[in-house]
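Structure representation.

___
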Amino acid sequence: MSLAVVTLLVFANPPKKNNKKQSFSYAAAQELSKMYGEVENLRWSESKENLIRADFQIDGQNFSTFFDRSGGFVATTHEVSFEQLPAMARKPLKVKFQGVEFSKMVHYQSNDTESFFVEVVEEGVTSIYKVTSEGSISLFK
């Protein structure tokens, strides 16, 4: 599953509250347990993109982890503050967006990618930028 799909899921689709009993992949549950141990407030849901989504908290911080239908790990996301971004990522953001509001920042990690997505509101227009740990910035959406 692509980075774009998972990132858009996090920004555009908060977890749905659903009272229907649903069953999810045992393999996904085992993988989540292996990765994080005990988590709080665990909720499972299905995405439109045929992914299994686990929303949970660790020490009060919200996480979303995505699995494919066979329970294989796809990616994990969680919101971060500006101060939690790597220094190499903060510096170019400060220069490029002086005086601009950062409304949401998400850390994205898969098996082979680590990125940060920053939602910027500039003159009433919201854009999402991808920022790497090394400080590269590109318009995502």
